[in-house]
Design a protein that fits this description.
- The complex is a heterodimer of chains A (about 475) and B (about 450).
- Chain A is about 35% helix and about 10% strand.
- With about 475 residues, chain A is an alpha/beta fold.
- Chain B folds into three domains: about 1-60, no CATH class; about 75-80 and about 350-455, Aspartate Aminotransferase, domain 1 (Alpha-Beta Complex); about 90-345, Type I PLP-dependent aspartate aminotransferase-like (Major domain) (Aspartate Aminotransferase, domain 2, 3-Layer(aba) Sandwich), CATH 3.40.640.10.
- Chain B is built from 15 helices and 15 strands.
- In chain B, a hairpin with a 6-residue loop joins strand 9 and strand 10.
- Chain B is globular and about 85 Å long.
- In chain B, about 60% of the residues are buried.
- The chains are: A alpha/beta (about 475), B alpha/beta (about 450).
- The interface between A and B is large, with 202 and 204 residues.
Chain lengths: ~475, ~450
């Protein structure tokens, strides 16, 4: 397990197998008659490898990887909850997998897309949804383009967006991609927005609105959320809700009621679709009635003829992805919502918060907790005060030695040496207790044997890797 | 009482029993779950979502089956236009179903994620070899957004504000580029081969073209490149394709001096799934590496050891470090789809991929030949084609109807995208079209031919 694994390319053979191509059943002509020689490639440097070798290779690789099914995955702001297995079977139903996006007999797909829009509308309070965005950041871009188009349609030039310093990095990056410049607001010590600063910033006049994550990246629900959205609206701005952290709010409260006009959801976080090792995700956008005309194309509406595309939509921002969005991801989220129902979703929100607070209370005995108050889905520890100058990175790497995954580290940027912990509702008390036991052991080691932390990890397939070397001299393929 | 019964028969993935919940509340020092939401203003708290009760697993499956049965799966397809039916080896689903892969997230903790990191490094290697481009990233959302991000990247590199789109780019991709470029105030100009030279002004950052293009034509890429290089030396050349299985036979973009090459990778082992998820393949010349969007996996060594390992690298380009100064806002990509593509290309291997490409070309050629022999049908492509072509039909509606009756997914009616291009079908033929299905298609065409339709 600890030896270097060969790259698959080293298993090349001379076998000329065509296992995965149907037998040719028509008469061929000389290919040079169809395709001029100058358009053909000379060689194709990809290997021929027997099936059994490929399978063993990937099984070995999978043994060197960690997923939610391996154990707790407390990656803050990523909502790494259990992915129900039934959804994997549902998405593989042939009448979902073998449907072409441009075929006409697609009533089932359209019905599913339309119905999940309605369900998401009920869950969030928003009036209309698009399921086109392929990921959360993609959704952010779409939401901001909607904002931009909305103000353009009113003949207003509003090219600035307020983003607090506690926001996910995608927020300012998406705002820039949509052509906005950023006004950064310093949040208070709980990561909340100071109202006087907000008022001051909004009064600049050309501010389109604000992007907010609530609960914020410190896991704190902004108690003045209604005042915030009111100030923005009074200054004719719009409020964008980054839904990355909406899991604890399921069945408890809704962004629309908080005063938000546009929200994105991450189906791969909140609605349990597998993260896939970093995608595919899905980032639907929900809006209030006034913004529905600006949603991207294609937009579904219900008519007497059934669910159809709304084609006369001059105000739409246009298309933001080919075809219909990440349908396979959306099917899983749909099944999840149907399976849980109203009561189940509320239980998700409640237990996500219960689990986070349980860890918060038990971990603060040994670790610095900058803000000690009831949190929502996550909380943030700091490496401040750790014995023997043990850092957050040391702690994270040592966690791996205990066969579990580490929290998000060094984010949010407003806490030095942040460890951002989000257990989600699907971790049992036993699993949480084990995490606490590991963390307490690490604290004892920091006091008594700090070297073991500074050289961690020891039990993984490789020891701590050199990130500086990788960036200085990038080797991106063999 | 009724309520209680429905409550029992539903899925629930929370592991706690009531006793555990109470114990945990005690540890926290609150009396109820409600107390945990004390920061939420009380008038925001809702009583209950207006959704139906949950479902048990068999009930859930029954309900989803009912919906899926409203779709129709055909026995054979002549529809492509950016989404293709190719054979998917069984081991692709086997590999991507390993939950160590599919339930993981972006490999931030490299030492616990060596398996996935190595797989994506191998994917980058595979794509570099296949395309002969210097560097490939870990993936983008799909072909359309990869192309839009390539256009934006070209404006960052050249500091110019216009891009030229050559005729023949997938119409939905063109719409996506328009949306992205509107956001960044980038001008879009449309050109064809004839007027391209005149369009190459000083403000042009890049020329974008698709080959094989939306109409099926394989472009003479070296001609386009020469034209651009001669008239606009600082302008970047960006190529896109929607079915890269053609690279089994066609000259790779890296052999033709293309600056950025992107593709939709759905053909590499990913089911159509109503058009998503797909795979955005993104490659570029080495000199543009640091302006590339998306994740990159690099090879490195242990700090205090000799073993090699893999790690997310050049993250200083990315949003979580650079925030608004990042080269793109992309965070999550399509990792599992790149794992599928890697597995597909390994399973096929050199011999298999060549054979797939060859069969696509040969079968398409065969259908073109046979169709052109039927009265009233005219093949419109003047250039060589891969697996798609345009045919003018005597009665396209009747042809489509006939295809359906033969259990064939009909080709695309071009008027769906180009209202002025009447009676033209975009036909796609892959290795999955057996001789039998091809004969059925030709039969459908014959019955919708000039002679037969007029004779009715």
């Amino acid at each position: 397990m600890c030896s270097n694994i060969q790259l698959i390319f080293e298993k090349e053979t001379e076998n000329e197998l065509k296992n995965f191509v149907p037998q040719m059943d028509i008469d061929e002509v000389d290919i040079n008659e169809i395709l001029p020689n100058t358009l053909q490639r000379k060689d194709l440097p990809i290997p021929n490898i027997p099936e059994v070798e490929i399978v063993r290779h990937f099984i070995n690789l999978s043994n060197r990887n960690y997923g939610v099914d391996s154990g707790i995955y407390p990656l803050g702001s990523c909502t790494m909850k259990y992915n129900p297995k039934v959804n994997e079977n549902i998405v593989r139903m042939p009448e979902f997998t073998y449907i072409h996006p441009l075929q006409e007999e697609n009533d089932g797909c359209l019905e599913l897309l339309y119905h999940i829009s309605k369900l998401l509308g009920e869950i969030t309070g928003m009036d209309g949804f698009t399921l086109q965005p392929a990921a959360g950041a993609h959704g952010e871009l779409v939401g901001l383009l909607i904002m931009k188009k909305y103000f353009e349609s009113k003949g207003l030039k509003k090219l600035k967006i307020i983003v607090p310093d506690s926001a996910h990095g995608t927020n300012p990056a998406s705002a820039k991609m949509a052509g906005f410049s950023i006004i950064e607001i310093q949040s208070n010590k709980y990561g909340e927005i100071p109202l006087d600063q907000l008022e001051f910033a909004m009064q600049e006049g050309d501010v389109a609105g604000i992007m907010l994550t609530n609960p914020n990246t410190l896991g704190v629900f902004d108690r003045q959320i209604k005042e915030i959205t009111k100030i923005v609206h009074e200054n004719s701005g719009l409020c964008y809700y980054d839904g990355a952290n909406i899991n604890p709010m399921l069945g408890i409260c809704r962004p629309r009621d908080m005063g938000f006009d546009i929200i994105h959801l991450n189906l791969h976080k909140t609605f349990s679709t597998p993260h896939g090792g970093g995608g595919p995700g899905s980032g639907p956008i929900g809006v209030v009635n006034e913004l529905i005309p600006f949603l991207p194309e294609p937009c579904l509406i219900s008519t007497q003829q059934g669910i159809v595309c709304n084609e006369n939509n001059d105000k739409s921002i246009g298309r933001i992805k080919a075809f219909w969005g990440n349908f396979g991801v959306i099917v899983r989220a749909y099944a999840y919502i149907l399976a849980l129902g109203a009561e189940g979703l509320k239980r998700v929100g409640q237990v996500a918060v219960l689990n986070a607070n349980y860890l918060r209370v038990l971990l603060q005995k040994n670790f610095n907790l900058p803000f000690n108050r009831i949190c929502q889905h996550e909380f943030v520890l700091s490496d401040r005060g750790m014995p023997n100058e043990v850092t957050t990175e040391d702690i994270a790497k040592r966690i791996l030695d205990h066969g579990i995954y580490a929290p998000t580290i060094y984010f949010p940027l407003i806490i030095s040496g942040a460890l951002m912990i989000e257990p989600t509702e699907t971790e049992s008390k036993k699993s949480l207790d084990y995490f606490v036991e590991v963390m307490n052991k690490i604290y004892e080691e920091a006091k008594n044997d700090p070297e073991i932390l500074k050289n961690a990890p020891h039990n993984t397939s490789v020891k701590r890797l050199d990130a500086v070397l990788a960036a200085r001299n990038p080797i991106l393929h063999d | 009482m009724n309520n209680l019964i429905t409550e029992l028969f539903k899925l629930d993935f929370v592991p706690h029993d009531d006793k555990t919940v109470k114990e945990m509340l005690n540890v926290i020092g609150v009396k109820s779950l409600q107390e945990l939401f004390q920061d939420v203003p009380s008038d925001l708290i809702i009583e209950k979502l207006n959704l139906s009760s949950g479902l048990s697993e068999p009930d859930l499956i029954r309900q989803l089956e009912k919906i899926s049965h409203k779709n129709k799966v055909y026995s054979s397809s002549f529809l492509g236009a950016g989404c293709y039916f190719h054979y998917i080896p069984s081991l692709v689903d086997f590999v991507t179903s390993r939950s160590e892969f599919y339930t993981a997230y972006t490999p931030y903790q490299a030492e616990a994620s060596q398996g996935y990191l190595q797989a994506i490094y191998e994917y980058q290697t595979m794509i570099s070899r296949l395309t002969q481009m210097d560097v490939a990233n870990a993936s983008m959302y799909d072909g359309s957004t990869a192309l839009a991000e390539a256009a934006i990247m070209s404006t960052i590199i050249t500091r110019k504000s216009s891009v030229i789109l050559l005729r023949g780019i997938h119409p939905e991709y063109v719409e996506v580029i328009r949306t992205y470029c509107w956001g960044q105030n980038i001008n879009i100009k449309s050109a064809n081969e004839e007027n391209l030279k005149d369009m190459l002004s000083d403000d042009v950052a890049a020329v974008l073209f698709q080959s094989p293009n939306f109409f099926g034509d394989i472009e003479d890429v070296s001609n386009i490149i020469k034209n651009v290089r001669d008239n606009c030396p600082n302008c970047l050349i960006i190529q896109v394709m929607t079915d890269p299985t053609c690279l089994g036979v066609l000259k790779p973009p890296g052999a033709t001096d293309v600056d950025i090459f992107v593709a939709e990778g759905q053909s590499f082992g990913i089911t159509p799934s109503f058009g998503g998820p797909g795979l955005g393949i993104f490659t570029a010349k080495q000199k543009y590496l640091r302006k590339m969007p998306g994740r990159l996996i690099g090879k490195t060594k242990e700090i205090n050891g000799e073993k090699e390992g893999f790690i997310l690298t050049l993250q200083a380009r990315e949003q979580h470090i650079r925030r608004e100064k990042a080269s793109s806002n992309i965070c999550t990509n399509q990792a599992l789809c790149s794992l599928a593509a890697l597995t597909y290309l390994l399973a096929l291997g050199r011999t298999g991929l060549k054979e797939v490409a060859k069969q696509n070309i040969q079968k398409t050629h065969y259908v073109k030949q046979k169709l052109s022999e039927i009265p009233g049908y005219k093949i419109l492509n003047k250039k060589p084609t891969y697996n798609e072509f345009l045919v003018k039909c005597p009665d396209i509606e009747f042809l489509i109807e006939q295809c359906r009756q033969q259990e064939l997914l009909p080709p695309l009616k071009l008027t769906n995208y180009y209202p002025e291009m009447k009676s033209i079908a975009l036909v796609c033929v892959t290795e999955m079209n057996s001789k039998q299905s091809i004969n059925n298609f030709l039969e459908a065409a014959r019955s919708a031919s000039k002679d037969n339709v007029e004779g009715q």
